[in-house]
Write a structure and sequence with these properties.
The complex is a heterodimer of chains A (about 260) and B (about 375). Chain A is built from 7 helices and 10 strands. Chain A is α+β, with helices and mostly antiparallel strands and about 260 residues long. Chain A folds into 2 domains: about 5-225, Alpha-Beta Plaits (2-Layer Sandwich), CATH 3.30.70; about 230-265. The longest helix of chain A is centred in the last third of the chain and has 30 residues, at about 235-260. Chain B contains 2 helices and 12 strands, in the order E-E-E-E-H-E-H-E-E-E-E-E-E-E. In chain B, the strands form 4 sheets. Chain B has a 6-stranded mixed sheet. Chain B has a two-stranded antiparallel ribbon with strand order 1-2. Classes of the chains: A alpha+beta (about 260), B mainly beta (about 375). The interface of A and B includes residues 20, 37, 38, 49 and 132 of A.
Chain lengths: ~260, ~375
């Protein structure tokens, strides 16, 4: 059964319980005690030892959600590996370390990963990353070990507002659609789903961890049109073949003309 | 309980050692060996009070003193809003919520003259935790101030009390000592800004526990102050740089977080700037920093002697603390205190290194 996350950013309160629950369950190290000055976000980005990241976006723009704030809004979003339907990391992995699990999630097997790093440049979201001290690539596992025991992933379990909802993908999509409608009926016309299916995001063919947003993807530091690089492999080979054929044709033509010239 | 099962509520607790309980209000949260707080039955499948959505202490009661939702005779004040009522046939309180009253106490019960304890509460006394069983709009006795409420400015304010002729609570307790100097009650020219201290989600009280945890320390790694862009411009504060905040009691250094969440106030036709300070830092732990409480004065409310100085006045200057000068008496810092620190870009952030090299285990200077 395909499992995933529906992250409803409109009810995120920025408590970072997901970040801490993730690190605690997966026993991940901290990655530096550095004050960034970027609102309350001292995590900055996903990485080898940060598999959930809560973004805090302060911007001088009114929101229909909370007009009382005036020309100001404070958006929060818990970011995570998207477990893409068409996963760039998986397709780029030469060792078979990255696999698609029975939960339709994308999982890095740490005992097979050899640290080549091809997956890192193949992720259109910049999610997967190599840990400097052991060289291997790490990212969210969708709590594969917990799912095996019928448990909810640690982040979703810890989320106090149900901003992170875990479940069967079909049910999540239905729930997310209802939520968008509810928000729009309430006047938040900007609400939309990011990466919910292939129609909206052909470059990844849809995300198993998708998001409800109320502003442009770039505002949340998400790519507006992510494309898995391996999607271009087919057309790249076609172009190369055409180019090769063209060169061959030109060479043959030149040879013929050459012969003609001599004759 | 003795058999290892969970009690169904605090009324099951015994004083003979057969039951155990950590905190009485939470007993019953694992009734029937079910995690009652994790229940998520949708609204459509239960009553409007939603008793099966999570759990509320005590006894899964959603509104305390709910006997007051019924009139003295025990009937709902409003049929439309009926909540808890007296069932004359069953001789018991019942309703949508768990009744917060002696279950079988009839509305007509009058306590006899020699009654003691809970028996002194009449059938019309809903506030069962109060000695007299009634709610209080104000405390008629027992308080050193009152009985009617008013607005007082704190011990130190930027303005004169706009609502009431008395500036501060006249019954407050001051501690007049050399190490506890007070600013002027209002309009002190040395301390033009309103300061308030508060908490962050990531740390617990002064951080004595949470600053030892790397997972929490990395989320709020350094002491900082929050200021508006306007104040930052006025005082030359740089986002991510250093500032020194001072009062007559002391001064602290911290990082600067410039944010539009902090708004300048318009008070009596004048702009008043605010400085927000989380109070979670101290000298020990993985993340260390100056303590906001170095700035505050000791002054207490009259009744329970709780500090009333979470709102105070103070000054702020750009740059780190210096032994050569005091924010209190001197102007802005001159050169030689170093430039404001550059912010690390996303790419400059150190990769995970199990947190040791990147930070130095004891925190302090980054």
């Amino acid at each position: 059964m395909a499992k995933g996350f529906f992250t409803d950013t409109t009810v995120c309160i920025g408590c970072k319980a997901c970040e801490v629950a993730c690190k605690e369950w997966n026993q991940l190290p901290d990655d530096g005690l550095i004050f960034t000055g970027m609102s309350y976000d001292n995590t900055v980005q996903l990485g080898a030892s940060t598999w959930r990241h809560v973004a805090f976006i302060e911007q001088p723009a009114a929101t229909k959600e909370d007009p009382a704030l005036g020309d100001f809004s404070w958006l929060m979003m818990s970011d995570v590996c998207k477990h893409c339907q068409r996963a760039g990391c998986l397709e780029a992995c030469p060792t078979g370390a990255i696999v698609r699990t029975e939960f339709d999630s994308v999982y890095v097997q740490p005992d097979i990963c050899n640290g080549c790093g091809y997956c890192i440049s193949a992720c259109p979201f910049g999610v997967i990353d190599r840990r400097e001290d052991d060289g291997r690539a790490w990212k969210c596992t969708l709590c594969y070990d917990r799912l095996k025991d019928g448990m909810t992933p640690a982040c979703a379990k810890a989320c106090p507002t149900d901003s992170i909802v875990f479940g069967d993908l079909d049910e999540l999509k239905e729930k997310a659609g209802d939520r968008v409608q509810q928000l729009r009926d309430g006047g938040v016309e900007e609400a939309y789903l990011y990466g919910v299916d292939e129609v909206g995001q052909p470059g990844t063919e849809g995300l198993n961890a998708f998001f409800l947003l109320v502003d442009e993807p770039e505002v949340y530091n998400l790519p507006p049109d992510p494309v898995v690089p391996t999607k271009k492999v087919g057309s790249a080979w076609t172009s190369a073949a055409l180019a090769a054929a063209g060169v061959a044709l030109a060479a043959a033509g030149a040879a013929v003309m050459n012969r003609g010239g001599r004759g | 309980m003795g058999d290892g099962g969970a009690v169904s509520g605090f009324t099951d607790l015994e004083d003979d050692g057969t039951t155990a309980c950590g905190c009485w209000i939470y007993s019953g949260s694992y009734k029937d060996e079910v995690n009652q707080t994790a229940r998520r039955r949708p609204a459509t499948q239960q009553t409007w009070v939603a008793p099966e959505w999570g759990w509320a202490w005590p006894a899964n009661r959603r509104l305390i003193y709910n006997r007051a939702s019924a009139d003295p005779e025990g009937n709902p004040w409003s049929e439309r809003k009926r909540y808890v009522w007296w069932d004359e046939e069953k001789k018991a309180w019942t309703g949508e919520d768990v009744p917060d009253f002696i279950a079988d106490r009839s509305p007509s019960y009058e306590p006899p003259a020699d009654a003691t304890g809970i028996d002194t509460l009449a059938g019309t006394d809903p506030f069962i935790m109060q000695g007299d069983g009634v709610g209080w709009l104000f405390a008629p006795n027992g308080l050193l101030d009152g009985p009617m409420p008013t607005h007082y400015e704190p011990q130190e304010s930027v303005i004169e009390n706009p609502l009431y002729g008395q500036q501060c609570n006249p019954a407050r307790t001051e501690y007049r000592r050399r190490d506890n100097r007070y600013h002027r009650a209002w309009g002190d020219p040395r301390f033009p800004y309103a300061i308030t201290t508060y908490r962050l989600t990531e740390h617990h009280t002064a951080g004595g526990m949470s600053r030892w945890l790397s997972w929490l320390s990395e989320l709020q790694p350094e002491m900082f102050c929050e200021v508006s862009p306007e104040l930052a411009h006025e005082k030359g504060l740089t986002n991510g740089g250093w500032a020194t905040v001072g009062t007559a009691r002391g001064e602290i250094e911290c990082r600067v977080l410039v944010t539009e969440r902090i708004k300048p106030l318009k008070l009596k036709r004048r702009t008043v700037h605010q400085i927000g300070l989380p109070y979670h830092w101290g000298s020990h732990g993985r993340s260390t920093g100056d303590a906001a409480n170095e700035l505050i004065s000791f002054v207490a409310d009259p009744n329970v002697l709780i500090q009333e100085s979470k709102a105070l006045t103070g000054n702020i200057e750009s740059g780190r603390k210096s032994k050569q000068r005091r924010v209190v008496t001197s102007g802005p810092l001159g050169d030689g205190n170093g430039p404001a620190r550059d912010l690390p870009g996303a790419s400059a952030r150190p990769r995970a290194s199990r947190g040791v090299e990147a930070t130095g285990l004891l925190g302090g200077e980054p």
